[in-house]
Task: inverse folding
């Protein structure tokens, strides 16, 4: 069997692809890679088809042994990459011989790294996707030490470019463009102003479901506004009763428990997926979709 053997699974590693859209009626969110841009870049470097699954590695620490010869790439959070202890580049095509050990260190910048292997991680599909949805438990279990991951056949020609430039460092504060929710009128005018003019800080309470933010003030409902459940998408900024907003990511609920004040535009979600505790955020109103 050609594939990867997991020596150390790292802090938290899951299989991810482009997700399972259009299953909201069954209570399933789209899920998929939190940083779609980094996931796509890793697949592109090894010549994979867009539907191929990668490994999403939170906070580094993944070590795998190559079973047979494999072509791999690491993108996303900037992590030290080694093969048999020798430093290698991220955002680059790497060729592994049988038995070679690839290791990812701790990120120097960002949170989530992506490891693509030529052909894709070939685990069974659930509702048309190989993604792990941590909220509902749909899809494969998180990666564990000793797992043997087979490689699939979702590959085309290898690209001419064997290395691509990584994205620019995320600004601090990160600027996230948002569209105000159609229900934003349930919030006070002061809260809408605060959302768009205050600087928010990422707390340690973050995972694939979302990021809890903290700011100098609290967001609250207008007089007569009701705290009601509301459908959500990735990028929704939900406001619970404590007034600290939650930015939903890939494994968001189909319906949140509280109203949504704004939605981050899809193009900025890769930035949101890489935010670490302590990073600052500014929300900028836009008409961009």
Result:
């Amino acid at each position: 069997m050609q594939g990867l053997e997991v020596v150390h699974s790292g802090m938290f590693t899951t299989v991810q692809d482009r997700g399972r859209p259009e299953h909201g009626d069954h209570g399933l969110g789209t899920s998929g890679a939190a940083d779609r841009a980094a996931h796509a870049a890793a697949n592109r470097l090894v010549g994979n088809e867009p539907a191929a699954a990668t490994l999403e590695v939170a906070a580094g620490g993944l070590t795998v042994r190559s079973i047979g010869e494999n072509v791999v790439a690491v993108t996303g959070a900037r992590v030290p990459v080694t093969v048999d202890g020798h430093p290698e580049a991220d955002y680059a095509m790497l060729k592994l011989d049988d038995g070679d050990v690839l290791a990812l260190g701790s990120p120097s910048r960002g949170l989530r790294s992506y490891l693509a292997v030529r052909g894709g991680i070939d685990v069974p599909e659930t509702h048309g996707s190989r993604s792990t949805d941590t909220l509902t438990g749909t899809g494969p279990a998180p990666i564990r030490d000793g797992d043997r991951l087979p490689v699939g056949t979702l590959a085309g020609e290898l690209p001419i470019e064997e290395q691509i430039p990584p994205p620019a460092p995320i600004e601090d504060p990160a600027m996230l463009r948002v569209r105000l929710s159609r229900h934003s009128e349930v919030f006070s005018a002061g809260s809408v102003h605060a959302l768009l003019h205050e600087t928010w800080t990422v707390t340690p309470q973050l995972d694939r479901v979302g990021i809890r933010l903290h700011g100098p003030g609290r967001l609250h409902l207008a007089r007569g506004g009701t705290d009601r459940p509301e459908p959500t998408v990735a990028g929704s900024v939900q406001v619970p009763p404590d007034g600290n907003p939650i930015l939903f990511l890939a494994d968001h609920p189909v319906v949140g428990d509280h109203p949504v004040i704004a939605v981050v535009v899809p193009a900025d979600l890769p930035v949101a997926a890489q935010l670490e505790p302590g990073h600052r955020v500014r929300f900028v109103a836009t008409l961009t979709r």
Q: What stands out?
A: The chain has a mean pLDDT of 94.
